[in-house]
Amino acid sequence: MAWLKLTSEALYLMKGGTNLFIDKVDLRDHNSEQEELILDVPRKWFQRGDIPKTMVIDVGSTEKPEKIIDTAFDSAAVFSKVVKRADWQAAAPTSRFEIVDRPNFIVIHHTDDANNSSNGTLEGAKTITKGIQGFHMGSERRWSDIGYNFLNTIGGTLLEGRSDSLAEAIKGNSVRGAHAATDNGNRSPGVANEGNFSVNKTMPNEQWESLVDLCAALCASCDIDPANIKGHRDFVSTTCPGDWLYQQLPRLRDRVAQRLAQ
Predict the structure, then answer these.
(1) Contact 104, 188 (CB under 8 A)
(2) Is the pLDDT of residue 214 over 90?
(3) Which of 211, 220, 241 has the alpha carbon at shortest distance from 169?
């Protein structure tokens, strides 16, 4: 007998996330008194023809583990400064995304472009964010939205990236992104920093402080240990977030921990 176990994540994806077969899944009441459902899936899912006689669906626990971070840090004050998607005129995503209720990391990136693209202005920050979304959703990558969850520009402007990232971060969750090229990385918030830190050997103070603020807010809200602030290259072979910024990650972790302890 073959067995198939579906996690709560898999069930979510089939009902509206990014799974290829989302339109092929149908959940119907079978015995409402016993809370039983019929799950109809395509025969071609079972490539070897060994269709299981039993399917076990594990919807997981609704209880979160005890919090790692115990802090009075005011995440709301930081999140209130984040420029929302509507304010930079983001295009609508072409699909829904998994909501992760227990992200493990914060993944730090650089945008790998000129360090003064935004000119340190709000309008410039909106422009480069819209440009990155256009690139990610365009013909070269064909993603369903901008890959990053948040962006941080040289003027210290923070912007919401992928759809619903801000609202979910406030709740302590993360929206699955397309920034780390691995499942574990994409299930954690990705923060892109304007500039190429393989070339540039410093970050403007305004940008550094806004990065510290955002990471502290995410750690406090999503219960992420500052020790788990990682670079993109910790998940996949890449130069991102640039040698200089990657070398600053120990300092960033320390600064975030200090902010949370204040």
Answers:
(1) yes
(2) yes
(3) 220
Strands 229-231 and 106-110: parallel
Please tell me the distance from the alpha carbon of residue 22 to that of residue 55, in angstroms, as a whole number: 18
- Report which listed range, 36-40, 157-161, 197-201, is most confident: 157-161
What are the pLDDT digits (tens) for 171-183? 999 999 999 989 8
Confidence of residue 58 (pLDDT cuts 50, 70, 90): low
Q: Domain limits of the chain?
A: 3-57, 75-261
List 191's β-bridge partners, or say none: 108, 150
- Quote the percentage of the chain above a pLDDT of 70: 74
Q: Which pTM value belongs to this model?
A: 0.77
Fold of the domain spanning 75-261: Lysozyme-like (3.40.80)
Q: What is the rounded CA–CA span in Å between residue 135 and residue 112?
A: 13
